[in-house]
Design goal:
The protein is built from 3 helices and 12 strands, in the order ββαβββαβαββββββ. By secondary structure, it is mainly β.
């Protein structure tokens, strides 16, 4: 399983650097020099991060395999992926969840299944769980401890304690 971490945008300068749209909550780790990222289309990679820097609010990456602006232009639109199996087990971060861990889990309120997790949307302020409710509508639930207090991997459940009306809002579109 590979995690989608960025999409390459336009070239930046003449030395082969590119701007990227970031899809990860930990850009410092994912884009550290030496990190190898797989690509889609696969013909464009893998790519090894040579440099990473912020230019205002835009992340600019340089890759060992990209020597100039012409090659950087060819990469425009390329999706970048990180393989979480490359992480060392000693990190021990039980607080983080990947989308592939959550998708397919049953969403439960007061012991009753109300739906199933279909997506994790990562945002700048907070992440959101997308729940397909048993009624067929979708609800976006803030992925915070107050609303999602328990995730039981063994049981395949995500326990929700939504404020009144949160799940009802999904059907009002």
């Amino acid at each position: 399983m590979h995690l989608h971490v960025a999409r390459i945008g336009k070239p930046h300068g003449i030395r082969g650097e590119v701007t990227v749209q970031v899809f990860t909550d930990d850009p410092e780790a994912r884009f550290a020099p030496g990190e190898v990222l797989s690509t889609e289309p696969e013909a464009n990679g893998p790519l090894t991060v040579a440099s990473a820097r912020w230019n205002k609010r835009i992340l600019v990456l340089g890759f060992e395999e990209v020597p100039d602006r012409n090659r950087a232009e060819e990469l425009r639109g390329t999706q970048l992926f990180f393989d979480p199996s490359d992480l060392e087990e000693e990190e021990g971060d039980d607080e983080g969840w990947y989308e592939h861990d959550l998708v397919g889990m049953k969403a439960v309120v007061d012991g009753t299944q109300v739906g199933e997790v279909t997506e994790l949307v990562t945002g700048a302020a907070q992440d959101l769980l997308v729940i397909r409710l048993t009624s067929g509508t979708e609800a976006m639930v803030p992925f915070v401890e107050q609303i999602v207090p328990t995730i039981d991997e063994d049981a395949g459940t995500v326990t929700l304690t939504p404020p009144p009306g949160l799940l009802d809002l999904a059907g009002e579109n």
